[in-house]
Design a protein that fits this description.
- The protein is α+β, with helices and mostly antiparallel strands and 164 residues long.
- It has one domain: Trna Endonuclease, Chain: A, domain 1, CATH 3.40.1350.90.
- Helices cover 32% and strands 26% of the residues.
- It contains 5 helices and 9 strands.
- Strands 2, 4, 5, 6, 7, 8 and 9 form a 7-stranded mixed β-sheet that branches. It has a two-stranded antiparallel ribbon with strand order 1-3.
- Strand 8 and strand 9 form a beta hairpin.
- The two termini are 28 Å apart.
- 21% of the residues are buried.
- The N terminus is likely disordered.
Length: 164
């Protein structure tokens, strides 16, 4: 289960973790219009240059994470108190390793998960740190229904290092 404070993308890891609750804005619409352009450029001509451009864009993007809270949300805001439970969708690769599915836009999520679900929009740096700290995942899978691009922990660490 994810750490309560790690769920809030605005929580700073070096600050006090004593607040009994966090409020999260849910279901914010997201598009990343240039993602497929940079991905296609890399796939058409894999080079260090196109890889660096794609990596830089991955680090600037925000992503959608599907969240299933045990408590009701009101007006697209979810308040969790310490001890509340929530679930994140997961997926597996052929080796049965657990990955966190993330999505570049609303359509990619709806293509993969047909039922209504809440989403949390998170920036790349937060997502990379969350995955690396969680110890529950072998990595992420971007848009599992379409491109199904898996990025492992080593690659996530490399992306995070590029931000620093």
């Amino acid at each position: 289960m994810p750490n309560f404070y790690d769920l809030n993308p605005h929580h700073k890891p070096n600050t006090s973790s004593t607040s009994p609750s966090i409020s999260l804005e849910l279901n914010t619409s997201l598009t990343n219009e240039n993602f497929y352009k940079y991905l296609e450029a890399y796939l058409q001509l894999p080079s260090e240059e196109t890889q660096n451009v794609l990596g830089a864009y991955l680090n600037k993007m925000s992503y959608l994470i599907a969240i299933i809270p045990d408590t009701a949300s009101h007006n697209n805001t979810l308040t969790l108190t310490l001890g509340d439970e929530f679930q994140l969708l997961i997926c597996y690769n052929e080796n049965r390793e657990v990955f966190l599915p993330i999505f570049t836009d609303d359509k990619a999520l709806k293509d993969w998960y047909k039922a209504p679900i809440h989403t949390l929009t998170v920036p790349a740096e937060w997502l990379w740190r969350f995955i690396l700290r969680s110890k529950n995942y072998a990595g992420i899978i971007i848009n599992p229904d379409t491109i199904s691009w898996s990025i492992n922990l080593e690659q996530i660490q490399s992306l995070l290092d590029d931000i620093k």
